[in-house]
Amino acid sequence: MNILDLLKSLLSLSLGDFIRRNFGTGPGTELLIDLGGVVILSTFCLLIVIFLIWLTRKIVARMQDRIGPNRVGGRFGLLQTVADVMKLLSKEVIHPAGADWVAFNAAPLLIVISALLMWAVMPFAPGVIGVNLNIGVFYILAISSASVMVILLAGWGSNNKYALLGAFRAVAQMVSYEVPMILALLVPIILASTMSTEGIIAAQTLPFILFAPVSALIFFVSSLAETGRTPFDLLEAESEIVAGFHIEYSGMKFGMFFLAEFLNTLFMSGLVVTLYLGGYRFFGLENWVSADGYPYGRLIGLAAFFAKTFLLYFIYDWIRGTLPRVRVDQILNFNWKFLVPLSLALVFFVAIVDKLIPPGTNVVVRMTIHLLLNILIAAVALELLRRRGRQNRLAMSAGGGSGGVEAVAGHGGGHDDHGHDGPQPIEDVPDVLDTPLGAREPVVIPVH
Amino acid sequence: MSQQIIFFILAAITLTSAVVVVTIRNLFHAALALMVSFLGVAGVYVLLEAPFLGMAQLLVYIGAISILIIFAIMMTRRLMQTNESPFNAQAVGALIGAGLALAILFIVIIRFYPMAPGDGFGQSAMVVDPATLQSSVARMGRSFVSAEAYVLPFEVASVLLLAALVGSIVIAWPHRGEEDNQ
C-alpha cells in the first residue's frame, strides 16, 4: 500500500507531499524536502548537459552534412560525451606560471554555481519549481549579471594577455546585451503585472508571443549574445582565435566553462518558453488531478515544458549551424544603435497601451491591440533602418565606393546604423559592398 | 533561532571580507573581497524579508560597481604592482572616528527605532504579515510614483542620472578634427 502510494507520488511529481503525509509536517521535514529538491534539481541539470552536448553535435553535424559522433555507445554515439567527460577528468591539472591562484580556481566553480542558481526559479510543471519567488525574473537578472564577474576573474587569473583581452570582450558584450534583454523582459512583466515566473505563466491564457512578438525576438537575440552563441560567439571564435577568456584552462576546469555554457543555453530556452510560450501550459491538462488526489497533470506539464524547451534549443542549434559570425563592432553597434532604442520604445508604448485598455477586456481583443502595436513598431523601425541604409549607401558611393575610408570617417565616427534586417539592396546604387549585416564600414582591425 | 544562526554566518562573512578589503596588499584580491562583502549584505537583506533589495544589491553592486572597480584596477598597470603596506599612521584617529559613529548609530537605533511594543532589547523578532511581504515590490513601485510618498526624490534622482548619462556621452563624443587619430 505504501509502495503504491510512493509510486503514485513519484509519477505525479509530488514526492514532497508524500513525505509530508508520512513523516508529518515540521521544520525538519521541510528542510529534508528542500535539501532533496536542491540535490535532485542540480543533479538533473548537470546530467542533462551530457545529453545536450550530444544533441548539439548531432544536429550541427547534420546541418553541415556530416555524421557526427557515431562510435562510442552504438550507432548514434550516445556515450560519446560520457567518454569525453572521462577524458577531461583524467587530464592533468595545469597551472599557468604566475596565475592568480584564487581567481584561476574560483572562476570555473563560480560559473557553474551561477548557472545552476538560476534554475531555482524555473517552473517545470505546476507546483514543480525550486522556489516561487515573487521577484523571480529579477532574481534571474541579478544572478546572470553577477556571472559576468566570473568571466573577468577567469581572464585576469590566467595571467595571459589573450585571456584578459578575451575577458574584456566578453564583458563588453554581455554587459551591453543585458540592457535590451532587461528591457525586453519588462514587456511580459507589464503584461502579467508580476515578476514571479509562475505568475507570468498563470497570466498567459494566450501565450505572450502573440502579445509581444517584437519583445520575444529582442529577448531571443540578446539571449544569444548573453550565452555567447553564434552569431555572437566571438568570445571563443573557434575558427579565428583559440578560446578567448578560458584559453589557459584545460581538463575539467575547461569542462566547467563548457558545462555552464550549455546549461545557460538550455536555461535561456526554458526562459523564453516560460515568458513567451506559456511555459508548462498545455490546454489546461497540466492542472488535471486524478480522483484519488494525485496531480498527474504535472507530468503532462513537464512533458509540455520540455517539448517546448527542446524546440527552442533546436532553434539555437539551428542558428549555430547556419549563421556566420559577426564582427565585434557590428555586435556592439547593433545593440546600442538598434536593439536598445527599439526595446525602449517598445516598453514605453506597451506600458501606455496596456494602461489604456480597460481591465476586464476580452483577452483576444487585448491580444489583437498589442499585436497591432507590435507590428506598427516593427514597421516603423524597419522603415527607419531602410532610410538610414539608403543614406549611407548614397554617401558611400558619392565618396568613392565601398572602400572609401574618408567617406565613412567623415560620417560622424561610424554613426551609421547596422540594420541586421537587411534592407533590400537598391538597384540604382551599384558596386556597393552588401554584406549580410548591411555593414558599410571598411574592415579596420582595431589595435588595442 | 535558525534566522539568528544564518545572520551570524552572514555577518561573519561580511565583516571578515570587509577587513580583508582594507588589509590585503593585492588590490585585485581586495576588490574580490569587497564583492564577497557585498554578497553578505545582500544575504542580510534577504534575511530581513527584503528580497528585492537583496537582488538589487546583487545586480548593482556585484554586477555593475564591482566590474567598474575591477576594470579601473586592471587598466592602471602601476596600481597593480605596488606592494606597499595598506596601513598608514592614522590608526588612532580612525579608531576614534569609528567609535563615535558606532555610538551615534547605537543611540539613534535604540532611541528612535524601538523593537515591537512590549519587547525589551534583543528579545524577539517583529512579526510581519506575509501578505504585506508578498506585495512589497508592488507597493514600493507605487510609492515611487505617488505624490504622497517619494515621487520628488525619485524624479530628482532620475534627472541626476540622466544628467550623468548626457555628460558621459558629451565627454565621449568625438570632437571635430579629432576623428582620424584613434
What does this structure look like?
The complex is a heterodimer of chains A (448) and B (182). With 448 residues, chain A is mainly α. Chain A folds into 2 domains: 234 residues, no CATH class; 114 residues, no CATH class. Chain A is 64% helix and 0% strand. The radius of gyration of chain A is 24 Å and the shape is globular. The termini of chain A are far apart. About 9% of the residues of chain A have low confidence. Chain B is mainly α and 182 residues long. Chain B has 2 domains: 84 residues, NADH-ubiquinone/plastoquinone oxidoreductase chain 6, subunit NuoJ (Four Helix Bundle (Hemerythrin (Met), subunit A)); 48 residues, no CATH class. Chain B is 73% helix and 0% strand. Chain B has 8 helices and no strands. The longest helix of chain B is centred in the middle third of the chain and has 25 residues.
Q: How would you summarize the topology of this molecule?
A:
The complex is a heterodimer of chains A (448) and B (182).
Chain A: H1 2-11, H2 15-23, H3 27-63, H4 80-90, H5 101-117, H6 136-157, H7 161-192, H8 197-203, H9 208-211, H10 213-226, H11 251-276, H12 297-322, H13 328-356, H14 363-398, H15 405-409
Chain B: H1 2-23, H2 27-47, H3 51-75, H4 77-81, H5 91-112, H6 130-134, H7 136-145, H8 151-172
